[in-house]
Amino acid sequence: MLELKNDKAIGFVYYCLLCGVINMEEINRWAEKVIGENEVSDLPDYIFDLIDFKGTVSELERLIGLFSRFFIHWRCTKAQRKAVYGIRVKRGRSLRRDDVSFNEEQALEALKKHPEVEKLFRETFPFIDL
Q: How far apart are CA 55 and CA 50, in angstroms?
C-alpha cells in the first residue's frame, strides 16, 4: 500500500509537479492509479478530488492541505532534488536559468548518482515512459 497518510507519496508527486517533471493531467492519472491499487477506506479524501482536478498548483496545495494534517514535503537531499530535474531533462523538458542554478548535464549527472530517484519516479508514475 502506498503511504498516503503522511507526506511521503504526495510530497514526491507535488515536488515533481513543482519542478515541471509532470503536469496536472499526470496527477489525475496518478490519483486513478492510487485508487485502483488501494482499499478505498485507506485513502485520504483528497485523492478522489485529484482524479479530475484542473486547477493551479496553489489550488492543489490548498486542496490537499484542507484534507490533510501534514505539510506537503518530500524529504530528500539537495542532490536528490537535483536528480528530479534530471528526470525532467530525460522527458525532453529543458531547464531554464530562471528556475535552477544548474544545467541539464548536472541534473542528468545527479540522476545517475541517485538511481533511487528514478526508481521512485517509475514506481510512482509507471504510466510515464522515460
A: 10
Q: Say if CB 21 and CB 117 are below 8 A apart.
A: no
Which stretch of DSSP H or E encloses residue 50? helix 46-50
Task: From 73, 86, 109, select the one nearest 21 (Cα to Cα).
Answer: 86
Please, what's the b/e burial string for 60-81 (b: 16 or more CB within 10 A of its CB; e: otherwise)? Answer: beebbeeebeeebebebeeebb
DSSP helix/strand/coil, 117: helix
Which among 48, 60, 49 is positioned nearest to 23, based on CA atoms? 60
The pLDDT assigned to 58 comes to 81
Chain-centroid distance, C-alpha 51 = 15
pLDDT in tens, 81-105: 999 999 999 999 999 888 788 999 9
Q: What is the mean pLDDT of the chain?
A: 86
Q: How far is CA 122 from CA 62, 71, 83, 117, 118, in A?
A: 27, 24, 13, 9, 6
